[in-house]
Write a structure and sequence with these properties.
Largest sheet: 8 strands, mixed
Order of helices and strands: HHEEEHEHEHEHHEHEHH
Radius of gyration: 17 Å
Distance between the termini: 42 Å
Length: about 280
């Protein structure tokens, strides 16, 4: 199997640049009509998040953007906010330092500290810290998966698990296949760092609702990553829902499904949040 080809998501989507431009445009449109604010969760400029508030006691959707850990920004990751805020869900879009400036260990740590900030502060924006649902796409799906695993929460003063559920869009959950690919040119992973940052190889919680999906036009490896992780979550005792891919959907545009009421992914996520 040609893993370089299998993990080249852009090659499966000729219109990728138009979709990525739409990430920013739709986020800008959301910010034009919703109250929102940016907050720092750490000492460096990339350690920030955007909060779209809701009514008191609202569930919280914490979304982590993709970009193969080296691209995009929270400014590209608010397209789902209008639909969720309209359903009285507080939305948080997390930013993080990109590779290769940051190692994957650091990126994971930043996302965990962002979650700790949400726990400590989200009540000021109407959110209920006991109802945090983490979501992410592609690399963001991986990072959301790293918030599910156990063993790190106590150091940040968080309960374990620190989230009430998750929605994972075509994430990467076992990073070992990436070691010999072009992606490792900017990630600089070795076997040990790949293993310790692979949610599929780490202790998983039981009892959490987890929604997963991928695009119809994805490669077999991206599909396998989701299907294998869904089985691992189910074996751990999570309540797993795999949403069948929308016809003609791709690795990049499934993010828009999350923010579309009536879409199967949006509705499954809402149900898992009790919203």
């Amino acid at each position: 199997m040609d893993l370089d080809r299998e993990y080249n998501a852009r090659a499966t989507t000729p219109e990728v640049e138009e979709i990525i431009a739409a990430y920013r445009a739709r986020t800008d449109a959301a910010k034009a009509v919703l109250p929102w604010s940016t907050h720092s969760y750490g000492p460096t400029e990339p350690e920030r998040l955007d909060v779209y508030p809701a009514g008191a006691g609202a569930p919280v959707l914490v979304f982590i953007h993709g970009g193969y850990w080296r691209a995009l920004d929270s400014a590209d990751a608010g397209s789902m906010a209008p639909a969720f805020v309209a359903a009285d869900v507080c939305v948080v879009s997390v930013n993080y330092t990109l590779a290769p400036v940051a190692s994957l260990d650091r990126i994971v740590d930043e996302c965990r500290r962002a979650l700790a900030w949400v726990h400590g502060n989200i009540a000021r924006f109407g959110g209920d810290a006991s109802r945090i649902h983490v979501a992410g796409s592609s690399a963001g799906g991986h990072l959301a998966g790293m918030l599910l695993v156990g063993g790190w929460q106590a150091a940040l003063g968080l309960p374990e698990p620190a989230v009430a559920g998750a929605t994972l869009l075509s994430g990467l959950f076992d990073l070992r296949p990436l070691l010999g690919t072009h992606i490792n040119g900017w990630m600089s992973l070795d076997e040990a760092s790949a293993v310790r940052n692979s949610p599929a190889l780490l202790p998983l919680p039981s009892g959490l609702p987890v929604v997963l999906t991928y695009g119809e036009t994805e490669t077999s490896e991206f599909k396998r990553q989701t299907e294998d992780f869904a089985r691992r979550l189910g074996d751990a005792g999570c309540e797993v829902v795999v949403v069948p891919p929308r016809p003609r959907s791709n690795h990049f545009d499934i993010v828009f499904d999350l923010g579309e009421p009536g879409n199967a992914l949006h509705e499954a996520t809402r149900r898992s949040m009790g919203s």
